[in-house]
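Supplementary Methods, section 5.1.

A reviewer requested that the exact input to the structure prediction be made available. We therefore reproduce it here, unchanged from the version used in the analyses.
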Amino acid sequence: MRMCEMRCPGFGTEPRHGIAERLDKTGWGLFFLWVGASFLFDVGWGIGLLGVGVLTLAMQGLRRGFGLELEGFWVLVGSGFTLAGVLELGAINVALLPILLMAFGVYVLASAIRRTRT
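The structure derived from this sequence is encoded token-by-token as follows.
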């Protein structure tokens, strides 16, 4: 059963745009809580980045579960943070920024091409 078919307090009766807005606000709230806790408890960059990435990807998973469209940009951002956290935890020294910038460029180009075809 998809989450959008389940009865969830505050989510079950709203139109889709209302659900999307609440999920966005929830995600931002969790993001600030995680970043604040990460600084407060000094968990390190690897765990901090990994947490942001997992949180971002989890919010996209929730969007999908509620029958909303995935936001490709945020999937890419979440994947980048997750990868950066894993690399930091593994002490793997890779020039990640250029790779992420190139991946973002490919994404933007692909989305532009995809929109012109439809």
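The radius of gyration is 17 Å. These observations are discussed further in the main text.
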